[in-house]
Structures are given as structure tokens and as C-alpha cells.
Amino acid sequence: MASTFGKRIDFLAREVGYGDLVGGCLVDQPYAQNQHENESFQHTVGQSHYLGGPLLANSFNFVDGLARAAIGEEGSRLKSEMQDIAEDISGFVERYAPKDPDIGDALANSGSPYVTDDGREIYRRPPKFPRHARGGRGERRR
Questions:
Q1: d(C-alpha 69, C-alpha 25), whole Å
Q2: Cα-Cα end-to-end distance for the chain
Q3: Whole domain around residue 99: which residue ranges?
Q4: Is residue 118 part of a domain?
Q5: Under a CB-based contact definition with an 8 Å cutoff, are residues 22 and 127 in contact?
Q6: Which residues contact 74 (CB under 8 A, 6 or more apart)?
Q7: What order of strands is seen across the sheet that includes strand 111-117?
Q8: Is residue 53 included in any domain, yes or no?
Q9: pLDDT value of residue 51
Q10: Does residue 59 belong to any structural domain of this protein?
């Protein structure tokens, strides 16, 4: 007969799962990466590093939230917590991406948050504004 500790570890493993749980936000506009990386652009609204900066600034809170969601009385909430984090990252795009007369707010509204569990997509919200038809593949993932 397995020990109580062994049963709890087995429960934890089943609840948390195996493999990588990945959350992020795809910003699929032809100019997204250029707008993100180029600090020399002078934006009237928004900023460069519209994903990386806020992601780093909030990383402790995200890790803390994941740790708290790992296991509770009802089991694991890791997947739903990762979905919330992916939506938060999409919110960074909406708040911080450049909004200029040339590009409007298309970039800010093009975040598509996603979560994969062990390589399988378990969540994806389509962008509010789909990819422009212009050339290039300016996607940015975080």
C-alpha cells in the first residue's frame, strides 16, 4: 500500500501534468518586430519593447501566480492561470504598442494570446485586428 505522501505526490503529478506549459502572445503584423525592437522610432503614443518591458516588469507576479495555482484544495489551476497570464501579455500589447497615424491601433489590437500544454495548444484567442496583408512576417512572440 502506498504511503499518504506517495498518494499526494501522485495526485500532484496528475493535477499538474507533465511537459512544458507555455503561455504567450503572438503579434502577427508585418511590422510588429520592427516596432518592438527599434528604439529610434519616435511614437506619439506607445513605446518600443511593448512586450518585453512590461513582461520583465511583471515577471515576479506571474511566477508567484503560477506557484500559487500549482496545487490547491480543488487541484491545480496552472492552466487557467497561464491563460490569464497570456491575456495579461496581450493587454500589454494593447496598452503599450505604438499607435501612430500611419499604423493606427492595428498593432495594439493584434495580440493573440495562447497556451500550449506539452506541445498541444489548449487556448488561443484570435486577435481583435487580424494581420495586415502587407509583405513580411513581422511576428513577435513572448
A1: 20
A2: 45
A3: 19-141
A4: yes
A5: no
A6: none
A7: 120-124, 111-117, 21-28, 139-141
A8: yes
A9: 81
A10: yes
How much is the average pLDDT of 42-60?
A: 81
The pTM assigned to this predicted structure is 0.78
More confident site: 55 or 104: 55
Residue 130 C-alpha from the chain's centroid? 17
Contact of 65 with 76, CB cutoff 8 Å:
no
Q: How many domains does the chain have?
A: 1
Q: Choose among 49, 87, 92, 41: nearest CA to 65.
A: 87
Closest to 83 in 3D by CA, of 112, 109, 49, 56:
112
Average pLDDT over all residues of the chain: 81
- Phi-psi domain of 134 (left: phi exceeds 0; alpha: psi -120 through 50; beta: other): beta
Tell whether the model's pLDDT for residue 137 goes beyond 50.
Answer: no
Asked if pLDDT for residue 140 goes beyond 90, the answer is no
Q: How confident is the model at residue 96 (pLDDT cuts 50, 70, 90)?
A: confident
Asked whether residue 62 is domain-assigned, the answer is yes
Angle between helical axes of 52-69 and 78-96 (0-180°, round to 10): 160
CB-based burial of residue 74 (10 Å sphere; 0-12 exposed, 13-18 middle, 19+ buried)? exposed
